[in-house]
UniProtKB/TrEMBL annotation:
Origin superkingdom: Bacteria
Name by which UniProt lists this protein: Ribose 5-phosphate isomerase B
Biological process (GO), any one: pentose-phosphate shunt, non-oxidative branch
Record: active site: C73 (proton acceptor), H106 (proton donor)
Pfam hit, one: LacAB_rpiB
Length: 151
């Protein structure tokens, strides 16, 4: 993998109950590639509240403790909305490879959010590969990204 993130730090990952199985499979996939993972839950398929997992993933990325974040929930909208409440977070929802590429290339996303109820696991891992291997383009996109945060 030729990634655009500093993988000397772990990747933060979280999900709600709907994304639990994808989270577990993603952890296994990343670990097999020698990538460190910080699992911030959920820890079963029992019903939970997605903000309880999106906030810790976002905090780990925002603080620099994690290289980037991965969030799964049923639609990925709940975790994306929650993550984007953090000033240092740019969480993008991805459901196809072009979107996964563009959230990095144009938006400098540092968390990828994926809808476990609407994409197959092999596609989720493919989206993650695209996300990890795409660098931020900067330039005019940097100017735009710098306007995102509320000051």
């Amino acid at each position: 993998m030729n990634n655009s993130f500093d993988l000397s730090k772990p990747v933060a990952i979280g999900s709600d109950h709907a994304g639990f199985e994808y989270k577990e499979a993603t952890i296994k996939w990343l670990t097999e590639k020698g990538i460190q993972v910080k699992d911030l839950g959920a820890f079963s398929t029992s019903s939970v509240d997605y903000p309880d997992f999106a906030h810790p993933v976002s905090a780990a990325v925002e603080s620099g403790e994690a290289a980037f974040g991965i969030l799964y929930c049923g639609s990925a909208n709940g975790v994306a909305i929650t993550a984007n409440k953090h000033q240092g977070i740019r969480a993008g929802l991805a459901w196809d490879n072009e979107v996964a590429k563009l959230i990095r290339l144009h938006n400098n996303a540092n968390i990828i959010c994926m809808p476990a109820r609407f994409i197959a696991l092999p596609l989720a891992l493919d989206l993650l590969t695209t996300f990890m291997n795409t660098a931020f383009e900067g330039g005019r996109h940097g100017d735009r990204v710098n306007k995102i945060a509320c000051h």
